[in-house]
Write a structure and sequence with these properties.
Blueprint: H1 4-33, H2 43-48, H3 57-65, H4 69-75, H5 77-99, H6 111-134
Length: 140
Protein backbone atom coordinates (compact mmCIF):
# COMPACT_ATOMS: atom_id res chain seq x y z
CA UNK A 1 0.00 0.00 0.00
CA UNK A 2 1.28 3.42 -0.94
CA UNK A 3 1.22 6.16 1.68
CA UNK A 4 -0.31 8.95 -0.40
CA UNK A 5 0.71 11.75 1.98
CA UNK A 6 4.37 10.73 1.97
CA UNK A 7 4.36 10.28 -1.82
CA UNK A 8 2.78 13.71 -2.29
CA UNK A 9 5.21 15.34 0.16
CA UNK A 10 8.21 13.75 -1.58
CA UNK A 11 6.77 14.68 -4.98
CA UNK A 12 6.50 18.33 -3.91
CA UNK A 13 9.99 18.43 -2.39
CA UNK A 14 11.63 16.88 -5.45
CA UNK A 15 9.70 19.04 -7.91
CA UNK A 16 10.17 22.33 -6.08
CA UNK A 17 13.89 21.61 -5.69
CA UNK A 18 14.11 20.54 -9.32
CA UNK A 19 12.30 23.66 -10.54
CA UNK A 20 14.57 25.92 -8.49
CA UNK A 21 17.65 24.16 -9.83
CA UNK A 22 16.34 24.19 -13.39
CA UNK A 23 15.46 27.86 -13.05
CA UNK A 24 18.96 28.72 -11.90
CA UNK A 25 20.48 26.68 -14.75
CA UNK A 26 18.09 28.23 -17.27
CA UNK A 27 18.99 31.77 -16.20
CA UNK A 28 22.68 30.85 -16.37
CA UNK A 29 22.25 29.36 -19.83
CA UNK A 30 20.37 32.42 -21.06
CA UNK A 31 23.01 34.73 -19.65
CA UNK A 32 25.71 32.69 -21.37
CA UNK A 33 23.75 32.65 -24.62
CA UNK A 34 23.76 36.46 -24.66
CA UNK A 35 27.43 36.64 -23.57
CA UNK A 36 26.64 38.16 -20.17
CA UNK A 37 28.55 35.32 -18.47
CA UNK A 38 30.75 32.59 -19.89
CA UNK A 39 30.47 28.90 -19.17
CA UNK A 40 33.95 27.56 -18.34
CA UNK A 41 35.52 25.22 -20.86
CA UNK A 42 35.50 21.50 -20.13
CA UNK A 43 38.71 20.56 -18.30
CA UNK A 44 38.64 17.00 -19.69
CA UNK A 45 38.38 18.35 -23.26
CA UNK A 46 41.11 20.93 -22.65
CA UNK A 47 43.52 18.27 -21.37
CA UNK A 48 42.73 15.36 -23.72
CA UNK A 49 41.13 17.03 -26.78
CA UNK A 50 38.35 14.44 -26.42
CA UNK A 51 34.82 14.92 -25.11
CA UNK A 52 33.64 14.05 -21.60
CA UNK A 53 30.21 12.42 -21.12
CA UNK A 54 28.69 15.84 -20.39
CA UNK A 55 30.16 17.70 -23.35
CA UNK A 56 27.41 18.97 -25.62
CA UNK A 57 24.87 18.99 -22.80
CA UNK A 58 24.22 22.73 -23.00
CA UNK A 59 23.80 22.62 -26.78
CA UNK A 60 21.59 19.54 -26.46
CA UNK A 61 19.40 21.30 -23.89
CA UNK A 62 19.00 24.40 -26.08
CA UNK A 63 18.22 22.21 -29.10
CA UNK A 64 15.64 20.22 -27.12
CA UNK A 65 13.99 23.39 -25.81
CA UNK A 66 13.86 24.65 -29.41
CA UNK A 67 12.12 21.46 -30.54
CA UNK A 68 15.15 20.14 -32.45
CA UNK A 69 15.12 16.62 -31.02
CA UNK A 70 17.48 15.04 -33.58
CA UNK A 71 20.06 17.80 -33.07
CA UNK A 72 19.72 17.37 -29.31
CA UNK A 73 20.39 13.63 -29.61
CA UNK A 74 23.41 14.34 -31.82
CA UNK A 75 24.88 16.76 -29.28
CA UNK A 76 24.26 14.54 -26.26
CA UNK A 77 21.55 11.84 -26.09
CA UNK A 78 21.71 11.82 -22.28
CA UNK A 79 19.71 15.07 -22.27
CA UNK A 80 16.81 13.64 -24.31
CA UNK A 81 16.77 10.31 -22.49
CA UNK A 82 17.02 12.09 -19.13
CA UNK A 83 14.07 14.30 -20.06
CA UNK A 84 12.07 11.21 -21.07
CA UNK A 85 12.91 9.49 -17.78
CA UNK A 86 11.84 12.52 -15.78
CA UNK A 87 8.62 12.79 -17.79
CA UNK A 88 7.88 9.07 -17.25
CA UNK A 89 8.29 9.32 -13.47
CA UNK A 90 6.39 12.61 -13.23
CA UNK A 91 3.42 11.22 -15.15
CA UNK A 92 3.53 7.96 -13.20
CA UNK A 93 3.51 9.71 -9.83
CA UNK A 94 0.73 12.12 -10.84
CA UNK A 95 -1.41 9.21 -12.07
CA UNK A 96 -0.67 7.30 -8.84
CA UNK A 97 -1.73 10.31 -6.76
CA UNK A 98 -4.88 10.98 -8.81
CA UNK A 99 -6.12 7.38 -9.02
CA UNK A 100 -5.44 6.75 -5.32
CA UNK A 101 -6.14 3.02 -5.65
CA UNK A 102 -2.99 1.70 -3.95
CA UNK A 103 -1.24 0.88 -7.25
CA UNK A 104 2.04 2.40 -8.36
CA UNK A 105 2.02 3.63 -11.98
CA UNK A 106 5.79 3.88 -12.35
CA UNK A 107 8.62 1.45 -11.80
CA UNK A 108 10.70 1.40 -8.65
CA UNK A 109 13.28 -0.80 -10.33
CA UNK A 110 16.73 0.56 -11.13
CA UNK A 111 16.94 -0.62 -14.76
CA UNK A 112 16.03 2.81 -16.22
CA UNK A 113 18.93 4.37 -14.32
CA UNK A 114 21.31 1.63 -15.50
CA UNK A 115 20.07 2.09 -19.08
CA UNK A 116 20.71 5.83 -18.74
CA UNK A 117 24.29 5.15 -17.60
CA UNK A 118 24.83 2.71 -20.49
CA UNK A 119 23.63 5.37 -22.95
CA UNK A 120 25.89 8.04 -21.41
CA UNK A 121 29.03 5.92 -21.43
CA UNK A 122 28.33 4.29 -24.81
CA UNK A 123 27.94 7.71 -26.39
CA UNK A 124 31.11 8.88 -24.61
CA UNK A 125 33.09 5.98 -26.10
CA UNK A 126 31.55 6.08 -29.60
CA UNK A 127 31.85 9.86 -29.93
CA UNK A 128 35.53 9.79 -28.94
CA UNK A 129 36.32 6.80 -31.18
CA UNK A 130 34.80 8.70 -34.10
CA UNK A 131 36.80 11.79 -33.17
CA UNK A 132 40.17 10.06 -32.67
CA UNK A 133 40.11 7.41 -35.40
CA UNK A 134 37.81 8.90 -38.07
CA UNK A 135 38.25 12.62 -37.51
CA UNK A 136 34.48 13.06 -37.09
CA UNK A 137 33.77 15.84 -34.59
CA UNK A 138 30.10 15.58 -33.60
CA UNK A 139 30.16 18.93 -31.80
CA UNK A 140 31.91 20.95 -34.51
Amino acid sequence: MIDRKILFRDFLIVNISGMLGAGILFVGMLLSRFDVITIPDCTFHALTHMYCPGCGGTRATFALLSGKIIASIKYNPAVVFGALLILYYEIGIVVTLIKNNGKRYYTTKLWPIYLYLVIVFSFFIIRNLLLVFCGIDMLA
